[in-house]
Amino acid sequence: MNKQLKWERIQGIVLDAVGTLIQPTPSVAEAYTQAAARQGVELDPKEVKGRFNAAFRSDLVEGEAGFLSTDEGVERRRWREIVARVLPEVPDPDRAFDELWDHFGRPDNWRVFPDAAPAVEAIREAGMKVCIGSNFDGRLHKVVAGLPELADAVEVIVVSSEVGYRKPHAAFFGAVCERLGLPADRVLSVGDDLENDVVGAHRAGLSALYLSREGDPAGLPSVPDLTSVAALRAAEA
To answer: What is the CB-side half-sphere exposure of residue 84 using CA atoms within 13 A?
Structure first.
């Protein structure tokens, strides 16, 4: 399945952030449920999770440049709308938004996956450039800087709100290649979102691996964890 990837050409790797390198702790559903509870509203975390997934997948707000365009202001408006849709029962939605915006901007509310740091180190030791590429906003810089496992390991962070477009737009991946100083066919995208990290990357001319921690989807170049990325590279060397 992974034989489609020509490792001899790869000189740089872009790793997705949320779901690939880091995950929120407590979970998104728990954080939203707690925000509602602080306003006296008791909600089922499973219901909150379903609402969040539906709202997150919707392009509720877009920038002036059209579909998938964004900037810092757009991201704030987008997340404000998401919070409003997920927690319509709370009496003070602005308070809920402010609390959650601050919550997910603090490093102590994120956990680095155990395989992330060893994988990044192994990839760098193999002589490849590494960057983080994420549909996030400026808060990601503070989050990564506050996580020792990543702070000194990854110097380049490409954020959609700063690029002007969210993945899977080709302009996002173009910015990644520019920051890495490499042509698209020399860059590998790795992430847990099939459309954003794999399909979009392929359309932009990059190679891609789907990170499938829950299992290996048939017919897709994939890995079960990040250490497998480095292992595949070593096996091809």
So the answer is: 9
Q: CB of 146 within 8 A of CB of 108?
A: yes
228 and 140, same structural domain? yes
Q: Which domain holds residue 94?
A: 24-108
**pLDDT, tens only, 94-130:** 999 999 999 999 999 999 999 999 999 999 998 999 9
- The reported pTM is 0.93
Alpha-helix runs per DSSP H in the chain: 28-37, 45-57, 72-86, 93-103, 116-125, 139-145, 148-151, 160-163, 170-180, 200-203, 227-236
Q: What would you report as the CA-atom Rg of the chain, rounded to the nearest whole angstrom?
A: 18
For residue 100, the domain's CATH number is 1.10.150.720
